[in-house]
Amino acid sequence: MLTTSQLHASLMDPVLDSLNFLNEIINRFPNAISFAPGAPNPTHLSNIDIGNYISKYVQYLREHRNLNQDQAQRLLCQYGPAQGLINDLIANALRNDKSIDVSPSAIVITVGAQEAMLITLRALFISSRYQLAVVNPCFVGILGAARLLNIDVIGIEETEAGIDLKRLEEACHIARQNNQPIRALYVAPDYSNPAGTVLTLEARQQLLDIAEQQDFYILEDNAYGFTSPLGEEIPSLKALDINKRVIFIGTFAKICLPGARVGYVIADQLVDEENGRSHLLSKDLATIKSMVTVNTSPICQALVGGMLLEYGGSISALERARSTLYQNNLTILLNALTRRLATNTSLMQAISWSQPKGGFFVRMRLPVAADMALLELSASKYGVLWTPMSSFYVNNGGTHELRLSCSYLTPPQIEEGIDRLAAFLQNITDHDIKRSNNSEKCL
Amino acid sequence: MLTTSQLHASLMDPVLDSLNFLNEIINRFPNAISFAPGAPNPTHLSNIDIGNYISKYVQYLREHRNLNQDQAQRLLCQYGPAQGLINDLIANALRNDKSIDVSPSAIVITVGAQEAMLITLRALFISSRYQLAVVNPCFVGILGAARLLNIDVIGIEETEAGIDLKRLEEACHIARQNNQPIRALYVAPDYSNPAGTVLTLEARQQLLDIAEQQDFYILEDNAYGFTSPLGEEIPSLKALDINKRVIFIGTFAKICLPGARVGYVIADQLVDEENGRSHLLSKDLATIKSMVTVNTSPICQALVGGMLLEYGGSISALERARSTLYQNNLTILLNALTRRLATNTSLMQAISWSQPKGGFFVRMRLPVAADMALLELSASKYGVLWTPMSSFYVNNGGTHELRLSCSYLTPPQIEEGIDRLAAFLQNITDHDIKRSNNSEKCL
After folding, report:
1. A vs B: CB pairs below 8 A
2. What's the pLDDT tens digit per position in B333-346?
3. CB–CB of B5 and A274 under 8 A?
4. How sure is the predictor about A431, in pLDDT bands with cuts at 50, 70 and 90?
5. B-chain residues near A118 (CB < 8 A)
6. Taking a C-beta distance cutoff of 8 angstroms, is the pair A53, A306 a contact?
7. Longest CA–CA separation in chain A, Å
8. Do B257 and A111 touch (CB under 8 A)?
9. Is B4 a residue whose pLDDT tops 60?
């Protein structure tokens, strides 16, 4: 019998443990209305004609790669280049839609954004001294990838403007003094998961300056960029990246489908070779990828490529076709919260919540600990699920906060869910008020 | 500018460098007949009706999971469980076809065998002291995965019976004395890549005993098991594995298609938990996988599942449908070698080659170094490509050997290729004889 309690200890951490526990609770209450999942809305996943999209890409291959039908179809069934197949389509779309001007060879197509994170960390963290900084709270996928590679992580607090830049600079100084320099910062500047905050344009420019001064790289996760309200999009860090400090991670999980498992990473940095020449960092990422998954399924790439082609090769057009639903859901969620909670004076003294203009997530502060025990009460007695924010903190934090996601539900479910949440909140704040009254009496 | 010459050094090793160089040569001579690629034959990849196979699996989901058409189709488009979707189909096939009796929950579906190797190594190598033993020469994918995780590798020489078991036992003793125990042995017991050798039944049983005595795990790579001639199949190590020492890695790249990127790993070992309970190692592998690729594309799993269902859910039936072509190609290759080389007495004194009954690979020994310079000569002057065996050795070795793969070519290409190879061999052995005559004169 394997005695790998060590194994457990080496791979699990409080964040991942709590997410496992969270999933268990969610599974135990299948009839509860769940504001927990940040997954794409099921409506967008109905009637996806996989064969049709793949055919569309096969047609593109015939026209642009000088292949006949059989050769083009066979290309999808074989192994493919580690760097990817649809790099040209993505490079064109990024140039036209996002003011990101890179060559197809600077892009590596990955098995979702998760693999992009893993291979990027593996390429950058060539010394065990290096630390990874993350905006805290942060997406658990990056913590998992860092854990897998035994990379130390330091959390930099999120602020209204996105990130505490002063604290980041201090952390860089201290880390260098301790001979444990910060090699990279992970940040999702647009409607981040879980907190839903947006990095202002000014903060983006300051962050790029700091990266250059303090000599670290920025891993920009763009997963929720597409949910920006029309006309309020802020250029990505990569679009502003004069000094090639930014490695950009994109995903098609939200705008096409998660089931394809297709993401990508842009790494147009130059890497010096010993012979005096240089090559793009993307080449090293592709080599690392070949040790992880060999190559991303060409069939899945064709499916995503076909969807892109369906929208004239435009990522923005594809994004707009998806973002309306989330904008609408978010508005319904925020309105329902206001309608059900804002008129209740005693409740409003006890709780508060964010008012994001985009993204999937609303963050709510409670007067009591929003922990697993409270979630279990919420699920069992009130039939409503949410995510404790503490699950996303590197160090202790967010103990009294919860995350509500609007992405997975229908408008009627959101309305009904907020009704249930209101009843739940009324109950716990009543209890809380009683409890604090009691404790005052005890004093 | 990134100064990551260190990055390069930390990830590349002589094996991977030489394979990159090999690919460069292959790409420079597109019109040469290439015995280099071990990829599946293109014939098997024509006319794969992706949509039809996916529909077949959707139908299966409707019948066996109580889903309607829309739910079943949507299931493929969403995220899925990290452990996989088609575990039940594979568990049934392994029980019926391979005498491997494990529950679906002991299986993790991976993005090809490569990801299976990576996550298995990450789970087992929880101490940096541990060493990985590999049968030498060996498949480069396992070396890449070990390199990515900074795992030290020790090579154990291959023999006629498969592996030098005496040397393996000695290595275990020495490693333990040096406080660097061998944690696992990687072996492909059936027509291994690159050497094409087969572990006898007796050697398999001895190996299992040694694993138990010396306390290591066996990573069994089954990629070429399907090429065994009918009636000559030897039970897999996993089928003989009474003490749960074997972690079995399977792939659908060769029997279905590489483009789906679907493999799997069986890990039915019990892992002790701190609370006194235990769980299957597969659960830990799934957790690690969630940090690498989240989950294997359900669409790709459905495609492979549909192909399995097309063959009545039988892996063996699927294998037989593919193996005939490779058996035929191998016979043609071996006959052509005999016809063109065996009658040439001077050549036969200088060279020799293996006579495998299955697999993709023939190994040939030359009187001169089969290095990149010789390959370049072979490609440029004779229009024939092969793989230097030294590419597959952990330590120096195989310098005078080359690998011929029969998998990717048509019978006429094999005939023509061996004609060219014969001319090339005639030339180099003539030169070699002249050279050795000259050197004798010099003495």
Report:
1. 233
2. 999 999 999 888 88
3. yes
4. confident
5. 291-292
6. yes
7. 84
8. no
9. no
Q: What mean pLDDT comes out for the span A210-220? A: 97
Residues 6+ apart with CB under 8 A from A205: A240
**Omega before A194 within 30 of 0, i.e. cis:** yes
Tokens 């995510």: give the residue. Answer: A387
- CB contact (8 A) between residue A51 and residue B50: yes
Coil/strand/helix, residue A337: helix
Residues B107 and B98 sit within 8 Å (Cβ to Cβ): no
| B53: closest CA of chain A, how far (Å) | 11
Could you tell me the pTM of the whole model? Answer: 0.95
Residues of chain B contacting residue A2, judged by C-beta atoms under 8 Å apart: 269-272, 281
Residue A7 has pLDDT above 50, yes or no: no
- Could you give the count of Cα atoms lying within 13 Å of A386 in the half-sphere of its Cβ? 34
Q: Which of B48, B55, B297, B304 to mutate against chain A (most A CBs within 10 Å)?
A: B297
- Interface probe with A: pick from B10, B282, B299, most Cβ of A within 10 Å: B299
Report the DSSP pairing between strands B270-272 and B263-266.
Answer: unpaired
Contacts of B51 in chain A (CB under 8 A): 50-51, 54
Whether B376 contacts B346, CB under 8 Å: no
pLDDT tens per residue across span B29-42: 989 999 999 999 99
- B14 has a pLDDT exceeding 70: no
pLDDT of B261 above 70: yes
CB atoms within 10 A of CB A68: 10
ipTM comes to: 0.94
How many angstroms separate the Cα of B151 from the Cα of each of B20, B99, B237? 21, 32, 24
The 10 Å Cβ neighbour count of residue B396 is: 8
pLDDT-derived band at A429 (thresholds 50, 70, 90) equals confident
Per the CB < 8 Å rule, is A299 touching B303? Answer: yes
Give exposure, B212-244, as e/b (b: 16+ Cβ within 10 Å): eebebbbbbbbbbbbbbeeeeebebbbbbbeeb
Q: How far away is chain B from the Cα of A186, in angstroms, using its nearest Cα?
A: 16
Cis preceding linkage at B37, omega within 30: no
Chain A residues in contact with B46 by the CB 8 A cut-off are: 70, 73-74
Nearest CA in chain B to A50: B51
**What amino acid occupies position A77?**
C
Distances (CA, A) of A227 to A263, B258, B443: 17, 35, 81
Q: Is the dihedral of CA A24, A28, A31, A32 positive or negative?
A: negative
Helices (H), A268-410: 281-292, 298-310, 315-337, 345-350, 372-382
**By CA distance, what is B302's nearest residue in A?**
A259
Residue with tokens 């499916």: A303
Helix H or strand E encompassing A223: none
Name chain A contacts of B126, Cβ cutoff 8 Å: 4, 6-7, 10
Q: How far is A210 from chain B (nearest CA, A)?
A: 16
